[in-house]
Amino acid sequence: MRSKRRFKVLVVDDEEDLRKLVMEVLKERGLEVYGASRGGEALEKVREIRPDLILLDVMMPDIDGWEVCRKIKGNPETRQIIVSMLTVKGHDRDKVKSLDYAVADWHISKPVSIDELAKTVLWLLGKPIKREGRRPWDSR
Amino acid sequence: MGLSIALASAKGGVGKTTLTVNLGIALAKMDKRVLLVDADIELADMSLHLGLGKAEKTLHSVLSGNASIEEAVLPGPGGVKVIPGSIEINALKTVIPEGLKKHLRRLQDEFDFLLLDTPSGLGRPALAALAAAHGTILVVIPEITSISDALKTKIIVDRLGIPIMGAVLNRVTPGADELTISEIENILGVDIIATIPENPNFRTAVTYENPLVLLSPDSAASKAIMQLAENIGHLSRIEGFELKLSRASEKS
């Protein structure tokens, strides 16, 4: 049975209006929500709050989201955090970069309806995503 | 003119050969003239699935210029015809994979469907097999690495200008907490046209060299493959025809 602890979600996006909207909607779904507007800030928040899931934009002014995700997934202490990219970069090659290079658990392309986004977040929090094969850190 | 379909996935172990063989037999059960082509030239093993033994003329012979494509066609189980690959490693040395398209065109009037079991990966043999077909069906399993690899295949197939007819979600464990159809469709950008449940008898079927749709036609997996065959069976190769298939319904 699932514990009553609320899931913590970190929303990382440099577009303030969008970040606030997503945070508001996820809060309404009963999640504990945090925000960050830069890649570096996101990494600090990850250490601080240990979220269960991160929605991560790609194009940010300091570190791009794919690199942020690689750092999170390359750290044994944080790699279990579910990360979904949330980005306007929606070509198939961008999705492959999210899933293969950044080792993200999922990729959501913008635009996405806010209901669809909330549904996907809840789905990601409830589903163990199988990943076979090697991850970048396995070769170390 | 027959319709050639590549069953493709950059990831290995997703069940491409098993699906190709069973789908072909399912189409043959519907009185379609079917040719199965073992285009997985690096790891050809379709003949083991079908109990054909060691063939004298194979696709490797054809692609090496040592046999005509007509000579390599063998009768298979359930009314299908088969072009097996060679299971000998040395046979690969003289093969020119890019010849596949040209050779297959010679047989197109004799069959309604030519199903190509394609190699994993994105190397030369895989590209040649994908380029030889009129349409592609992606084969995925409910795992993130499979989805990622299917996206890579999709990128290549799009570049080749070949339509993607849909994706088959294979090896689904009923009731398991797996990726759902709608989530996979969202990220892959391709309709799921069938879901095939995992069935331990797929392995038994290979051991006994008797494909599941013949060995165990009433199993859920066989029924799902028959349904996929019905979905595909109405298509034919007409210039400009949209290779669009019905979506599988989401199970609750």
Task: Count the E strands of chain B.
Answer: 8
Which two chains share the most extensive interface?
A-B, 19 and 19 residues
Gross morphology of chain B is globular
Note the total helix count of chain A: 5
Helix content of chain B: 25-40%
Based on CA atoms alone, the radius of gyration of chain B comes out at: 17 Å
Structural topology:
The complex is a heterodimer of chains A (140) and B (252).
Chain A: E1 8-12, H1 16-28, E2 32-36, H2 39-49, E3 53-56, H3 65-74, E4 82-87, H4 92-101, E5 106-109, H5 114-126
Parallel strand pairs in A: 1-2, 1-3, 3-4, 4-5
Helix pairs in contact in A: 2-3
Chain B: E1 3-8, H1 16-29, E2 34-38, H2 46-50, H3 59-63, E3 74-75, E4 81-83, H4 100-105, E5 113-117, H5 124-131, E6 135-140, H6 144-160, E7 164-172, H7 181-188, E8 192-197, H8 201-207, H9 212-215, H10 220-233
Parallel strand pairs in B: 1-5, 1-6, 2-4, 2-5, 6-7, 7-8
Antiparallel strand pairs in B: 3-4
Helix pairs in contact in B: 1-10
Walkthrough of the structure:
The complex is a heterodimer of chains A (140) and B (252). Chain A contains five helices and five strands. Residues 133-140 of chain A have low confidence and may be disordered. Chain A has helices at residues 16-28, 39-49, 65-74, 92-101, 114-126; strands at 8-12, 32-36, 53-56, 82-87, 106-109. By secondary structure, chain A is α/β, with parallel strands linked by helices. Chain A has a single domain (8-127), classed as 3-Layer(aba) Sandwich (Rossmann fold), CATH 3.40.50.2300. Chain A is globular and about 35 Å long. By secondary structure, chain B is of the alpha/beta class. Chain B has one domain (3-233): 3-Layer(aba) Sandwich (Rossmann fold). Chain B has an eight-stranded mixed β-sheet with strand order 3-4-2-5-1-6-7-8, with helices on both faces. In chain B, helix 6 (144-160) links the parallel strand 6 and strand 7. The longest helix of chain B has 17 residues, at 144-160. The model of chain B has no long low-confidence stretch (mean pLDDT 89). Classes of the chains: A alpha/beta (140), B alpha/beta (252).
